[in-house]
Task: inverse folding
């Protein structure tokens, strides 16, 4: 048995993997592999439409919000967002709450003014900056809703009239959230939404066209909307796996149900960590992520022993990001609570022995 | 039986599909699906290295040419190339030989001067422009080696000291070619190299850094080289399918063998078309593509009847691009000659009946 606590690409639902595997030999009874079909066929266009519809329903989007499946990961959104939304003489507000958000800030500076209105960098990103003023004239406010590396999560989205832009790569559809509030949100699929190679982008079309910079066709959200997310050949298989995952999320009951399950899973793990002095969670209690649980063991020998014990039990993906060290356990939507229990049992046993 | 003449995404070797399918349930004995593994694991890093090595060997690249697996398709390369290589006060030379090349020209104009040194647009792109002068001061010359839509192929790469850049999306590794001559070449994988979602880019690193524009990290070839094609999460599965396809190409004997096979296949089809007055190939004989064979049937009723006959026999992907009409038969590397013979037999029979 393998217990997959990878931070992303991460665990996927078994039925998604099984459906994807079937489609590799015969997609929808066409006699062709999903890898060999034309993307402009009715069968694949139906997949894209279904995905857009499911995302719309699962996030309860408004009529002006468009759903796109793009390429290039969140890292491409880091520059595509300011390229489209930030005029060279305007200013965007950014919150600097983790290394991915810091990368977004760096990419934005190429296009216009950037005001970092809050930062927890000096504290090693162990908490989410909270008391900041949002400049009313900002073109947008950029947030990261969950910091995958550091293990913090933004539990309350700030109230503001400034258009909100958010990187939701590691917590999209893992919890209840008012997705209607965002002018633009994006998420690399490889954590909660499918496989690597596709990025979900939700964009309020009324926010587009406010600045005049000419952008390349592939970087122009309006062109992607106009072409129904098929401006060029989309990453067909990655889109298909995302649609399968959206179907699975929908069948489970959506964000409401996932919110409860993910709360249970993370409560179980944090509760165990808090009860055992051997382990030390590294981030501020009120900002704890429900997706990525980061902790340390002070004694390096015990750290090594714990790593080996986990490995022996078939656990993978538990090493913390190299910038943080220690351990990181990712509890994405597809991870059953039983797998968390195997880990917490192991933790109790390990603590008793040491 | 399905005969897949799709223009791309197109037919893939059966053994590639079977290996991909196995990796969906268990990648390399890890007990995890290829969709669930970390991209920074030794097992996946080995896949990327193997792919780079195979591409290097199959194309007989020089030591200064780097192999990258990127996202965004050839359409992204249309702007990424000039963004990196064309200073705002410099000029690049382009040959306008088809609708994809024309899109590349349009994207280049955003970044600097563009001189279209040859165009067959006025003739409906039915031939490849040939007698043109290449301005010595051009930052590069951009070519499309095969025009997927129109069915023409550039059989002779021009001699010049100007750095050569080429879109090889639809004929890469389908024929013998001196790949060392290119400063940069790119190919969307979904025709001869695998599945949609990854683009092979080969780049001579000595050509980089000649202009000073600051570009976003994701668009900077130097950053991708520095990070071994893992600047961010790569499209893991699409890369894997490409590496499986490169393995298959290597096992077959490489470009030399494919060149001979593709010549046989296209000779068989063109020979049939030329022998039957009912069918009319649409492009100049000396520029005929070996990958995409485009032809018409003058009588619209017969065109319809032929379409239905092909459909009845299980043939897919034979309709010409909407901008050209008629028929297009794509004979990518993975298509067995037997499938061409089934089609040519049908053509003889159809011609005899009408």
Result:
């Amino acid at each position: 048995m393998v217990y997959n606590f990878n931070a992303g690409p991460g665990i996927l639902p078994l039925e998604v993997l099984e459906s994807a595997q079937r489609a590799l030999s015969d997609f929808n009874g066409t006699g062709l592999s999903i890898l060999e079909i034309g993307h402009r066929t009715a069968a694949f266009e139906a997949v894209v439409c279904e995905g857009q519809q499911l995302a719309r329903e699962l996030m309860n989007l408004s009529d002006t919000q468009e759903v796109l499946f793009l390429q290039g990961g969140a890292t491409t959104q880091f520059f595509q967002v300011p390229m489209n939304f930030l005029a060279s003489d305007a200013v965007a507000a950014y919150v600097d709450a983790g290394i991915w958000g810091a990368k977004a800030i760096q990419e934005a500076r190429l296009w216009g003014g950037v005001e970092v209105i809050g930062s927890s960098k000096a504290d090693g990103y162990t908490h989410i900056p909270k008391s900041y003023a949002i400049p009313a004239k900002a073109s947008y406010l950029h947030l990261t809703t969950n910091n995958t590396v550091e293990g913090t999560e933004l539990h309350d989205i700030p109230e503001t009239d400034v258009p909100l832009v958010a990187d939701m790569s590691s917590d999209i559809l893992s919890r209840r959230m008012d997705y209607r509030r965002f002018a633009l949100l994006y998420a690399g699929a490889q954590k909660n939404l499918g496989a690597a190679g596709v990025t979900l982008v939700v964009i309020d079309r009324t926010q587009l066209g406010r600045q005049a910079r000419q952008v390349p066709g592939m970087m122009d959200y309006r062109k992607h909307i106009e072409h129904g997310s098929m401006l060029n050949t989309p990453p067909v298989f990655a889109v298909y796996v995302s649609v399968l995952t959206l179907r699975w999320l929908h069948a489970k009951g959506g964000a409401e149900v996932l919110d409860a399950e993910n709360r249970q899973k993370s409560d179980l793990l944090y509760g165990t960590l808090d009860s055992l002095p051997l382990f030390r969670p590294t981030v501020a209690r009120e900002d704890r992520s429900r997706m990525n649980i980061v902790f340390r063991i002070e004694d390096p020998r015990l750290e090594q022993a714990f790593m080996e014990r986990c490995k022996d039990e078939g656990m993978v993906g538990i090493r913390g990001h190299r910038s943080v060290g220690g351990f990181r356990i990712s509890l994405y939507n597809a991870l059953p609570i039983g797998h968390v229990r195997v880990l917490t049992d192991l933790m109790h046993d390990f603590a008793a022995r040491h």
Residues 254-353 of chain B form a domain with the Aspartate Aminotransferase, domain 1 fold (CATH 3.90.1150.10). The CA atoms of residues 152 and 235 of chain B lie 31 Å apart.
